Structures are given as structure tokens and as C-alpha cells.
């Protein structure tokens, strides 16, 4: 008679191994979700901290950056796919678990990481930050996701286009439905001949592309040629529209450019450069001595305006209502050879007399829907009511800018949003009933830039111009 079979020895417990790049990415996502942090602000500090650890290399930083931004951009699509792989609503899933799954989904569906490696690394991350129990759930979901590629999944989870076009595109291109609707409406006004399904899809796809880093040479202090000469030829190219722009290709690092280190140049989207340059080029009647940037933070447009003003012997006042942003403006303007002043002041309660300025720019606070390439988390954070809430402030700032401008001077109203309620509607509302203002056609002041519509105001687009979706209206105060 034989006894019971001997029990096999239990497998020794293995401590999960931390992957530094994935840990940085997870920590950044949690900060975005829990504290409404912006990825472009929180991620650099996390990377600097990680770089102090031995073995954390530049490629780890690049990988962590791709994980964070790629996951945030495609979160809507990944949520739909994850939802198809679990037996409960996403709202019932622990946010920590959902962030791990989203990072894993991006590795499986949005990178070239082999599926087995993506699953294994995600489960290992889950063991570190969630524990062994919930790591088993992550493992099961990841294996389901790994059975199909992204296109196949999207065909399966997106509603048919014929039944709900906006909802279909929202899932396919990872935008909230209301944002899809708003962008489609705006595109229909600005590009009526090109506002069908293909054009909207191209716009939404452009929002999901990682934007190139663009430098600005500040006139009189540096040139685009100098910036390009300071970089290997394969790491830069001339800007498409702005004479001050240099675009960095993959691998280009602005930190190694001497002019950037010396504050003679900076990092600035080409759309923002065009707005500042157009205001500076608009014809004024009479003197041209004193300019105002009424919403100057964080200082990119102010720095370009100050450089252009210095070339003409004009002075710039850069006003910002928030002290910490005013400090950023002062930093951006440091070293400018011309005359300038940075002040902390509320644009709705001006610190200057009416009619003081020859040129005034107000780049007003807005929903930021024009910069979704750079701040992908904004698409999930904003709500339709936010657009309405910005309206009174935007109208008030434009009215204040008009009062600050002397007769014969020029006002520029700009915003990084293509939403009609933040752009043309604001300007038309303020102009209604006034006879002391006239539009300046802004299109000739952006030479060479195509597809600017019928004017006189202009709207830039990521898919047409490769810029943020900046809006600009130029107004002259009649003599």
C-alpha cells in the first residue's frame, strides 16, 4: 500500500522587477489623472529624477515619453478596446489598474514592441504597483488585447459611420465626441470645400501625431541660418512658413543650440510665430512706438514681439495677470536689446491709460483645442461648458485691448483654439454695434501660407499647415 504522493515544493516567491521607464510613465499618468497635472510639466521633473539613478539612459527617457504621450493621445480608443475585453464597466475599474492597462495597450497596439514582451512587461509593472492579485487580471486582459491589431480592434469597437459619424470618428481617432463635432463645424466654416469625412479624419489624425520641436530665431539676436548651422545637417530643416522658424527632426535637441542657451532663440510653434509676425507687419496710421502684449504668459510671443519692436525703435509692455507666468515672461525677454517692461496686471482692469498703444496683441485664455498634439490630456479634461465659460473673459479682454489702442492703431485677437465660439463669434460679438473698428485682412500678412479661407481673419490647422490650430483676427481702430 502506497502513501499519498509527496506534495511538490511551493515555487519560491519572486519579487517583481521594476522597469524604470515604465515606472516613470505610470507615475506621470497617475499625476495627470489624480492631480490634473499637465504631462509636459510633470514628465520632465520625473525624468530628471530618474536620470540620477544608475542605468537610466537617454533611450529610457525617450521610451517613457512615448509611453506617456502615446497613451494619453489614444486613451479613448484604448478605453473602448479594454472595455470590450472585460466584464464590467470601465467606471468600475480601479484607475490604477486602468492606467496600467492603457500603458500595456499602447505597447501592444501603438509600438513595435513584440506582443509577448509587451504583455510580460505590463504584468510585471502590475505586480510592482498593484500586487500579484490584480496583476492576474491585467494578464488576462492583456492577452485578450494581444489577439488583434489596432485596426482590427477599432473596426470591432467603433459604431458604424452610417449610424453615428461623429461617434465613429471619436472612437477611431481617440477624441471626445463633442470635440469631433466642434472641429467638424469649424472646418465647415473655414474650409467648406474640404470638410467631408476625409478632411475631418486628416485633422483628427494630425492631432494624434507627435509634433516636431520648432525653434524661433529672435530677429536682431539670431537667425534661422545660425540655428541650422549649429546643428548637424540631418537634425534640422527650415520652417515651412515663418522666416524665423527651424524645425528639428527626430533626434534634434534644442538644448545644444547656443542661441537657445543664450536666450537669443527659443522653442515656439510656427503658428505662434506667424501670429506675432502678422501683428508686427500690420499697417498702422501714424506713430509706431509702443506695443502691448496683454496676455503675455508664458512669453513666447512677447519675446518675438520684443525683438521685432527693438528693430524699429519701439518698446513693448508685456502684461500677465498671474505672477508665476509673469516671471516666465521676464525670463523669456531677458537679454532683449530693446526697451521693454514686464508687469503683473489684470487685462480686465488695465494698468495703463486708454489709447496708450500703437499695437496690441491679446492671445486669450481658451480651451486649448488647437494644441491637442502638445497637450493630449486636454481633450479628456475639457468639457463643452468650458468653452462657454471662457466666453465672457475672452470678450472682456478683447474689449480692453481695443480701449488700450489709440485711433489708427492695430489690435490682434488670437487664440489656440479653432472652436467657433472662441474665435470668430467672439470678435463678431464685440464688433457688433461699434463703428470705430475695421477688419484688416490678415491673409497677406502670412505670405506663402495656403488654405487660409476667405478672410479677413485666419485659422491655421495641424493637418493643412503643420502648426497648432491658431486663430487670428486683426482690427484697426479708426482715426
Automatic annotation (TrEMBL):
Q: Does the keyword Methyltransferase apply?
A: yes
Indicate the residues that form the catalytic site: 416
Describe the location of the SAM-dependent MTase RsmB/NOP-type domain by residue ranges.
203-478
UniProt-listed Gene3D superfamilies: NusB-like (1.10.940.10), Vaccinia Virus protein VP39 (3.40.50.150)
PANTHER family named among the record's database cross-references: NOP2 YEAST -RELATED NOL1/NOP2/FMU SUN DOMAIN-CONTAINING, RIBOSOMAL RNA SMALL SUBUNIT METHYLTRANSFERASE B-RELATED
Annotated segments matching region Disordered: 1-20
| Upper classification of the organism | Bacteria, Bacillati, Actinomycetota, Actinomycetes, Kitasatosporales
The molecular function terms in GO held by this entry are:
methyltransferase activity
**Sites where the protein binds S-adenosyl-L-methionine:** 295-301, 320, 346, 363
Which EC number(s) does the record attach to this protein?
2.1.1.-
Q: What does the UniProt keyword field contain?
A: Methyltransferase, RNA-binding, S-adenosyl-L-methionine, Transferase
Task: Give the family, as the similarity comment puts it.
Answer: Belongs to the class I-like SAM-binding methyltransferase superfamily. RsmB/NOP family.
InterPro entries with a match to the protein in the record = MeTrfase_RsmB-F_NOP2_cat, MeTrfase_RsmB-F_NOP2_dom, NusB-like_sf, NusB_RsmB_TIM44, RCMT, RsmB/NOL1/NOP2-like_CS, SAM-dependent_MTases_sf
Origin species: Streptacidiphilus cavernicola
Q: What name does the UniProt record give this protein?
A: RsmB/NOP family class I SAM-dependent RNA methyltransferase
Amino acid at each position: 500500500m502506497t502513501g499519498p504522493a509527496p506534495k511538490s515544493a511551493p515555487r519560491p516567491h519572486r519579487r517583481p522587477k521594476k522597469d524604470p521607464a515604465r515606472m516613470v510613465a505610470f507615475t506621470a499618468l497617475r499625476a495627470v489623472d489624480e492631480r490634473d497635472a499637465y504631462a509636459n510639466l510633470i514628465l520632465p521633473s520625473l525624468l530628471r529624477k530618474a536620470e540620477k539613478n544608475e542605468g537610466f539612459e537617454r533611450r529610457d527617457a525617450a521610451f517613457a515619453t512615448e509611453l506617456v504621450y502615446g497613451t494619453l493621445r489614444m486613451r479613448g480608443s484604448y478605453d473602448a478596446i479594454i472595455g470590450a475585453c472585460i466584464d464590467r464597466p470601465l467606471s468600475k475599474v480601479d484607475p490604477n489598474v486602468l492606467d496600467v492597462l492603457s500603458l500595456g495597450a499602447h505597447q501592444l497596439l501603438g509600438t513595435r514592441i513584440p506582443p509577448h514582451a509587451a504583455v510580460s512587461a505590463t504584468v510585471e509593472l502590475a505586480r510592482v504597483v498593484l500586487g500579484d492579485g490584480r496583476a492576474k487580471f491585467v494578464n488576462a486582459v492583456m492577452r485578450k488585447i494581444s489577439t488583434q491589431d489596432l485596426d482590427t480592434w477599432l473596426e470591432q469597437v467603433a459604431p458604424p459611420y452610417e449610424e453615428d459619424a461623429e461617434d465613429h470618428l471619436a472612437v477611431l481617432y481617440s477624441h471626445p465626441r463633442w470635440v469631433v463635432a466642434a472641429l467638424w463645424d469649424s472646418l465647415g466654416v473655414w474650409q467648406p470645400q474640404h470638410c467631408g469625412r476625409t478632411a475631418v479624419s486628416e485633422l483628427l489624425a494630425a492631432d494624434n501625431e507627435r509634433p516636431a520641436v520648432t525653434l524661433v530665431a529672435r530677429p536682431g539676436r539670431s537667425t534661422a541660418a545660425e540655428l541650422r548651422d549649429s546643428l548637424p545637417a540631418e537634425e534640422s530643416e527650415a520652417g515651412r512658413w515663418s522666416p524665423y522658424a527651424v524645425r528639428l527632426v527626430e533626434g534634434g535637441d534644442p538644448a545644444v543650440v547656443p542661441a537657445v542657451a543664450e536666450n537669443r532663440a527659443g522653442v515656439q510653434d510656427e503658428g505662434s510665430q506667424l501670429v506675432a509676425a502678422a501683428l508686427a507687419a500690420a499697417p498702422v496710421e501714424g506713430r509706431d512706438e509702443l506695443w502691448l502684449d496683454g496676455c503675455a504668459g508664458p512669453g513666447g510671443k512677447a519675446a518675438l514681439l520684443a525683438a521685432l519692436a527693438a528693430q524699429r525703435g519701439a518698446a513693448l509692455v508685456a502684461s500677465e495677470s498671474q505672477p508665476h507666468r509673469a516671471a516666465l515672461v521676464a525670463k523669456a525677454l531677458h537679454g532683449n536689446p530693446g526697451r521693454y517692461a514686464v508687469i503683473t496686471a489684470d487685462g480686465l482692469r488695465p494698468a495703463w491709460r486708454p489709447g496708450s498703444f500703437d499695437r496690441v496683441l491679446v492671445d486669450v485664455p481658451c480651451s486649448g483645442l488647437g494644441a491637442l498634439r502638445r497637450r493630449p490630456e486636454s481633450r479628456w479634461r475639457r468639457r463643452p461648458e468650458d468653452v462657454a465659460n471662457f466666453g465672457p473673459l475672452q470678450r472682456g479682454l478683447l474689449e480692453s485691448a481695443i480701449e488700450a489702442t489709440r485711433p489708427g492703431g492695430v489690435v490682434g485677437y488670437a487664440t489656440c483654439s479653432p472652436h467657433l465660439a472662441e474665435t470668430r463669434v467672439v470678435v463678431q460679438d464685440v464688433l457688433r454695434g461699434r463703428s470705430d473698428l475695421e477688419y484688416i485682412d490678415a491673409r497677406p500678412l502670412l505670405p506663402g501660407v495656403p488654405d487660409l479661407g476667405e478672410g479677413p481673419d485666419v485659422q491655421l490647422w495641424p493637418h493643412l499647415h503643420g502648426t497648432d490650430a491658431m486663430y487670428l483676427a486683426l482690427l484697426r481702430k479708426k482715426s
